[in-house]
């Protein structure tokens, strides 16, 4: 089957945006570019990355007179399969977001990606910010796609290999002042049946002991902790699990959710503790959180936000009910 390739003219325009330039392109846009008309590019992304991608594209569109990029979002859970079908069927996609280097290589081998090595070398694109990641992306020196960001979402390492090499990762984290947000509540809720996530529950259940193991090692090494959640879990649950799993005292766990979090955000001069000159952000509970931290969630009676008092019963009465899961999640 014939796979469409992105036009050199179109890709040159996208290079200036600094976004991930993908594979496959439409003949219509190439004709527009050749005739001097405004070039319209269709940029396909997965729904999880829609918010920050739209901001980048909007800023790019504002800076361009001859190019307009249209962002088309597809559901996260079906994106990879739909992308393969699109590229195989010769879709009108001009740019696509690709999740991994492995997928880039697969599309490249299938002939769906254009060699843009010379274009990149002859452009003024600044690749220095990517560091060694740039070379890792192109082991054969052939560039067919551009990295969109240089952050690392997840990092896995083999603890046994590290131990044999005499490398203590937890100690290194502590020595370098690195901070751990274990996200225990989200992991535990995903590992518990009954959340409507039966497709992923088994693997979260298997990985739960690994998270506990990491947490315990970091605690022993003195790694600083903060309290945070994912799409599941609450800050109160996180505090309780830091006590139950991490062995912290309730006060230590509460500090993870207050002053430690504030320090990480660079806001410890404004929030995190009750002190003169700071924002009056605090809650009033019916109970003693130093002996029963669960009361921080179940027995909140009032809360103050920057010195303004609110009744939680009143707030609950005016807050509309909503489904926990968004459509299509």
Compact overview of the structure:
With 329 residues, the chain is an alpha/beta fold. It has 16 helices and eight strands. Strand 7 and strand 8 form a beta hairpin.
Describe this structure in words.
- The chain is α/β, with parallel strands linked by helices.
- The protein has 16 helices and eight strands.
- The protein has helices spanning 8-15, 27-35, 50-63, 79-89, 101-109, 117-121, 132-137, 159-164, 169-175, 184-191, 201-221, 235-244, 250-257, 259-264, 295-298, 312-318, and strands spanning 39-46, 67-74, 95-96, 179-180, 224-225, 282-285, 300-305, 308-311.
- The chain has a three-stranded parallel β-sheet with strand order 2-1-3.
- Strand 1, helix 3 (50-63) and strand 2 (67-74) form a beta-alpha-beta unit.
- The protein starts with 7 loop residues before the first helix and ends in an 11-residue tail after the last helix.
The biggest beta sheet reads: 3 strands, parallel
How far is the first residue's CA from the last residue's CA? 33 Å
Low-confidence stretches: 1-33, 324-329
Shape: globular
Strand arrangement, major sheet? 2-1-3
Give average pLDDT, whole number.
78
What proportion strand? 5-15%
SSE sequence, one letter per element: HHEHEHEHHHHHEHHEHHHEHEEH
Key descriptive features of the protein:
329 residues, alpha/beta, 16 helices, 8 strands, 42% helix, 11% strand, disordered C terminus
